[in-house]
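Appendix B, record 7
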Amino acid sequence: MAEHNTSETLALALRLWPQARDTGAVDDPSQLDALLATLGKPGASGFDAGVDGTFAAFSPEQEALFTLPTGERPASDPASGDEEGRLLAHILVTRTLVAAGLHVDRRVQRAIGHAYAPTWCVRGGYQASPLVLASTLWLVALDPLGKSDRPLAIDWEPALYQDPERWDLDYRLFSHYDIRERSLDWVMYASIDRARHPGCSMWTIVEPLLRLADDRAYQALGAFAEASDTEEEDLPAMAVLERGRVEGLLRAFTAQARQRRAGGGGGQ
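Structure tokens (predicted):
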């Protein structure tokens, strides 16, 4: 498996992400146009099954194999190929655009819908991997309409979404609030035991939770603060540093929560 991503689009999204995440903007907005230009192109997640609202971080000829800054890698297998990597890359591009202020753009709103359709809108239990589910948490955390009952912009017409085993074909209306609730329920589930989010570092879950003002997010953060994130294999130094950055944010968050409780402020 490739150690590093070979996609210029994904590399750009990851390069812009820290500034967009921390400031809500990027120095050169024209670089966002380069990301937007990949919407609905060949190689995008679901493209071959009629989906035209996802970003193509990889061409059809490229394998969507890459390493996240926190050290995880999307799975690849003979049955689904590298579809998880293509979906994950779409989510990563989308979150950069949302964080940079383009959540009002209809193209980005469509992209959000197509990030949620195979993750939080499926029937039954969680079908996407913990790494993919955790990555969508940033879209939830950055959503200014997170508590709104406004329907999401999801085009259910593509052939991909006509599988009755994955989707309830009679239930197609999902709101921003629905996704927030489903994602927070999963966060509570995942925080109980590290075995419930295999292949996904707890730090990938933790950072977007710090932006979510919800008792379930606070409870999960408390559980993660008491947990350990041991790895069976060695990680690159950059991944260790990135996890350490998030660990510092969680440590500061829990310290502030203790101070507020001690001062009689209550809550988190």
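Remarks on this record: The chain has one domain: 8-262. The chain has nine helices and no strands.
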